[in-house]
Amino acid sequence: MMLARVMYDFAAEPGNNELTVNEGEIITITNPDVGGGWLEGRNSKGERGLVPTDYVEILPSDGKDQFSCGNSVADQAFLDSLSASTAQANSSAASSNNQVDILAQIGCIESLSQSPPSSSSPSPSSSINKVSSGNDPWSAWNASKSGNWESPDGWGAKPEGTAAQRNTSNNWDTAFGHPQAYQGPATGDDDDWDEDWDEPKASSPYFKDSEATEAGGAPRGGSRAGASSMKLPLNKFPGFAKPGMEQYLLAKQLAKPKEKIPIIVGDYGPMWVYPTSTFDCVVADPRKGSKMYGLKSYIEYQLTPTNTNRSVNHRYKHFDWLYERLLVKFGSAIPIPSLPDKQVTGRFEEEFIKMRMERLQAWMTRMCRHPVISESEVFQQFLNFRDEKEWKTGKRKAEKDELVGVMIFSTMEPEAPDLDLVEIEQKCDAVGKFTKAMDDGVKELLTVGQEHWKRCTGPLPKEYQKIGKALQSLATVFSSSGYQGETDLNDAITEAGKTYEEIASLVAEQPKKDLHFLMECNHEYKGFLGCFPDIIGAHKGAIEKVKESDKLVATSKITPQDKQNMVKRVGTMSYALQAEMNHFHSNRIYDYNSVIRLYLEQQVQFYETIAEKLRQALGRFPVM
């Protein structure tokens, strides 16, 4: 049995399967990770429901009940689905070991080894937290060496250690994968994916969502029987298991693709070629639809590209499909941030629909602003199909695309001189150093902003309310004196008290007007930065392969010309990385200038409003 102490009051919303709890209350945890920053608990009355994970503190226990496998139905369902999915996805003994590791993390290793757990063994919650907090995406390429992704003969047909296929030693391949990892669609008919009703719960309007993913926590995706914690391996995508780094570096003749991606040298170095005219895509008019005679419901959004003004309709699962295709095709070279989270209950509430639409809008705007993504065939088809037949044809064509993973570099043509290996490695290290530092800075600002949001919507307004009530109570006491000459003073004190109550309301509402946008911007960039370890990993792996090529030339496994081709192709990868970083930097400068300027403008207006209210209250007190 796992117990937790409630740290903050939480009021359940009707119809959301939530549980009302009060500060100091002790509840029993029946499912420690429902997904999206929520857990399931039971109070002393036997009432059961969802509670935000960050609202409770797990209490230490003797480690007895929590390690038994006679767990709840939800836990057993999770284990069943885990076993089934693992058995289906993995056939080797190493994969079986991975399953054992995952089972150990959720506290059921007792069923696999007969030794009883000691009292010092971690609880399920601590195991989960350990996996989550230790899920630093940067540790993969900081700690790994070239040998980590080599086959015994050094040149096995293994995919690179990028978004294409990750090393089994990569920390992102744990059960609680990085939120960047794609989670769906479910297997089955390619035109009938998983429905919106099995979406894991996204918690508050903003900051709880960031909590859930801050340490690589509950990933986005379906939540059948607790499977929201499982990551669909990217090597299961078409193409990702096929072209490995060696295939790109050692191919005698690269196929000439129809889609070519030019790279030119501009004022700030290598850069993508931007289209002559740009466009955005407006996401609007969310409408509820249903299928199967009303048994299943969903929300459909209207998308209108500004360059055509012709609207198309898409459900969330269609966005999910687009994200998958972009990640599969471009993920080795371009960071593709994940979509906003799905959710289990309350998904048709106005607040959630508004938030999801806002984040889908931001995601689409990001894609439209990228010169490579926006001009790609799959993205254009997503926005410009004319009927269902054209949509399905384009969809199947995209899914059969073979220029995916590292083979995307074969479509790139830098109009620049060849680079030497030392310069290539220096450029790669510089990108890795900056993106890692920025990732730390963004996470710090998210943490600070989250705490500030909590204070502004919780304790701080209450303090102002207490001041207001205390002043009004004092005025009431003064009024009971019966003294004739203090009416004006009592009225002034009463109004001052009301002013502080108004300030309390202003403080509680202000984060939605300024902090929200700053946090959203950081949340977006956190998603971008989470992609770079894989991208950097691919480049470092390619560089190591070139370093090893001298030995292969010496043993006649490859020719000197093969080595020259390898250096040239790694140079192409370097130019692509530099071009992407120049695009990233230009967007970063514009975005942070805009959002921090907006934040400060709103803060100035906020404090000026408070100052004016205090001046009015002050004016009621005469100078004596």
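^ that was protein a. below is b, sequence first then the tokens
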Amino acid sequence: MMIVSPGLFKHPSRCFRSYSIVGVGLLGTFTYCHKYKINRVSFSSFIPSYYHCRATLSTMMEEVKPEFDSDKAAVLVNELRKTFNSGKTKSYEWRISQLESISKMIDEKEKEIVEALRKDLSKPELEAFLSEILMARSSCKLALKELKQWMMPQKVETSLATYPSSAEIVAEPLGVVLVISTWNFPFSLSLDPVIGAIAAGNAVVLKPSEIASATSSLLSRLVGEYMDKSAIIVVEGAVAETSALLEQKWDKIFFTGGARVGRIVMAAAAKNLTPVTLELGGKCPAVVDSNVNLQVTSRRIVAGKWVCNNGQACISVDYIITTKELAPKLIATLVSVVEEIFGKDLMESKERSRIINSFHFKRLVNLLEEDKVSNKIVFGGQREESQLQIAPTILLDVPEDSMIMQEEIFGPLLPIITVERLEDSFAMINRKPKPLAAYLFSDDEQIKRKFVQNIYAGGMAINDTILQVTVPTLPFGGVGESGMGSYHGKFSFDAFSHKKAVLYRSFAGDSPTRYPPYTPGKKKQIKALLSGKLLNIMLALLGFYKD
């Protein structure tokens, strides 16, 4: 039971939240709408927008039990486990058919995908195509091309101690896996791990982010239309639905999001000893040397900051470190490039995504308005809450203990910190938790080597930003606070596979040396084996030594 507090109904959308969950599977298709009952009158989020009530209320409010609870989640997982145990998902043919269905879905529904991304984030069409559609399509095509090779057992050498023998590593699917996605790239970051899970032969539940509601709804519908309903399911919803899913036993949980929720996911997984991949984030630095091409450097930083979802990316440049001497020139060039790309009137540009919602808008404004930060703005700073837009903003020498330098920014704000010597930046970066990405712009080979050797990060790019994630032969993942595990390309397949070690032996070559009793003669043979004397080893294994 809960008491409705005074003034609760000033805005109906804040009084009643409607969460939906659509699932497809052996249980059929089901839809859930979270409602509350007040005095036996059923309300939902479909209350007319003109309804306002500012009166003090003392009505008792009874919450109806959600339709998708832990019990329903358990049934869903059990049905998926039956599918997996049947062996259906393990075959090459099934995996290929599902990957082909994803590829077909992306090709046929491209316009709908772009429209959903526009609704959620106002993503420009070209950005939506490059960062979401093309990324997912490329991952799918690579899996289709390489799957047979990925599935083949890997032959490995054996030791003389097992002669004669052969050995191999067999990649086998983990089982029933859960993928919890995020809102900033809601299409590609949902499908990319799912592609890896399917390629590896698993049954999958995808939980997209409710914050990107249009894309979440679209994924639910499209997966239901194109994919195998008995093995691949989308569950929509918010905290209650995610909590219900996390209470279940999974064979792997793959989570993309922030560190706070990542800890919750890991704690839930630990109860069942479930392995996890956590794709988190952090404060990704970009160090700029004085010997660089400033125009190219600035364009690549702008691309990795404001062009890339308006800074709402886990690998976005979070802050820059450069020398005091170079800083004014770098700022001037960055401003020039920003205005060249987005125009003089930054708030009118249609080439940037918007902030995802008012919560994150206010969070970013709070970072800007902190007393020790507000006077450090050297460019930008304009904002419009009704449009959820903040102009590209550059700040100079904000204090290291300010909020903007302590937490991941995840938005269009870019602090620049100056140092006397470029090498001083290394200690500054390493004082913070290990980031998901680190960037260096320099023509100095010695500086490059020192940066790679001494900076701890999930990944790096030298003289560019963000493009490292487009290389399928490179693993993408964090370290420490920025996450654990990796994926992309074959690494996605590996993330959802168990590498099973298999040794094959015949009944020939059975040496008595290995069996007790260990007589002095056998001890000599064992010593010869351990000493590496090839002839004695071979004779011992073949049983030619006598007591």
